[in-house]
Amino acid sequence: MAANPRAKYSSNDRCVQLKPRQLEIALLMADGLSSRDIADRLHLSPQTVDFHRREIRDRLGIKSTALLVRWLIREGLLEP
Fold first, then answer.
1. What are the structural domains of the chain?
2. Through-space distance between the first and last CA atoms of the chain, rounded to whole angstroms
3. Model pTM above 0.70
4. Residue 68 · residue 29 · CB < 8 Å
5. Rounded to the nearest 5°, which phi and psi values hold at 52?
6. What three-state secondary structure class fits 9?
7. Using alpha carbons only, how large is the chain's radius of gyration in Å?
8. How is residue 77 annotated by DSSP?
9. Between the CA atoms of 68, 13, 20 and 74, what dihedral angle is there, to the nearest 10 degrees?
């Protein structure tokens, strides 16, 4: 797979990793759950979920849930 110079993340870049809670929230985001739904499911406040969502986006350098899903698939963390 050729590297895309415009990509802000790469499946070959193992420095980019999510913490376990971030991964859990990322997978729920990929399932289409809202911050409120994720908060209820994980017994967190919506503000905490929003914080994690920002951290996930910042850590991966992505701005949309679609790109998050793409990253999860590339990493083998989500089946297409």
1. 20-74 (1.10.10.10)
2. 18
3. yes
4. yes
5. -65, -40
6. coil
7. 13
8. S
9. 40
